[in-house]
Amino acid sequence: MRSFYAAMRRLLHAVLLGLVGAGIVHIIVLLLVPEFSERDAWSRLSMASDLYKMTRLDAEAGGAPVVKSVDPLFYATACRFDLGEGMVRIKAPGHVPFWSVSVYDRSGHNIYSFNDHTATGGVLDAVVLTPAQMIDVRKDLPEDLQGAIFVEAPIEEGIFVIRAFVPDDSWKPIVSRFFEQSSCELQDF
Amino acid sequence: MGKSIGPLATRPRAAISPGGNFSCPWPFMLKNALLTLLSLAIAIGGGGGSVWYALKIQDGVGAIRIGQWTAFPDIGTPSADPYSKARVAREGVLALGRAEGLSFVAERDASGGELKRECTYTIEGGFPTARFWTLYAADQSLGVVETGKPRLAALQSYGVLRQPDNSVIISASHHPMPGNWLLTDGFGRMYFVLTFYDTPIASSTGLSDVSLPRIVKVGCDA
User: Fold this and answer.
1) Min CA distance, A159 vs chain B (Å)?
2) pLDDT tens digits, A160-169
3) Transmembrane residues, as ranges (chain A) (predicted)?
4) B131 touches chain A (CB under 8 A)
5) CATH label, B64-72+99-220, candidates 2.40.10.10, 2.60.120.600, 1.10.260.40, 2.40.50.140
């Protein structure tokens, strides 16, 4: 009988140890999920297209949506960039009822956002660059960058997303054209 | 398990110990190994499983509740909690920025019942300040409900009729409704997603005195 209690105590000890271990594993796994996820926005986008290439996020362009986003009354497009190669310029001529922009880092955190009320004349023209590149640009601001919105981001790889409001069906071609005309390019400086 | 191994483990020890230096007989080692294995199984299985469960449920830390509506203003920002960060990475979400807008999700009506796609609801009340808002009926994954018709299960503020006091009454139903009709379809759980764009409430200070419309159940299809 005594040996039975001893065995049970050992069993209980093992279970308690296991539960403490479960707590530790829980924390470790939780912190490692963002590092090793292959389903995050960056990975999905990189499967769909290259760097500096605008990719529609909504299902309207055909096929399943690349990144689970969004409001059914919105269209969205995204491009990935790498500031290690140089600063990136995003332009979209044309007017739509509402557009907004977000810059995300590699792991999908929103680090900067603005909308059409921020832009000069409501036209989307933005440059994303690192603080070091900003210092270089400030020394001698090129003529054609005068009206652009500068987004200083202390990151290397990132995602630029444009969202645009589609109030009703009649706006669909206009918003689609707005996205088709948008560009995401490595800017020489 | 303990019952069968217990006696086995003590007997050889008694038999060998007079012999001297051999202090760890094999059944004892086997028992230790089994218990270690059990601990490891609980640690890895329980730890991994609990993370999976915590990420699966909709509810989470950092939520702000207003009536039946829940928002996660911090989700997708670098200051989010580890659970939100893991969820963002796992689901590939690109969350709305502060200057873009703020989404609220409702999963229950005013009486506390879960929202059902086969039921009719009235959503009424005032809406906080924003350039515009959109409202859509969503399924479990927060994608818009498929209606199978050209009409989307979504409404937006430029296209709704307003009461004299600027409040809005919306009927969400599978059947055509007078006034503002939000078409829904199908059976099972439903969510309402209400998103305000270009709104001052997206900054956390603005959220304290916001009131959102009520969701009242009218009736259900048999």
Assistant:
1) 9
2) 999 999 998 8
3) 12-33
4) yes
5) 2.60.120.600
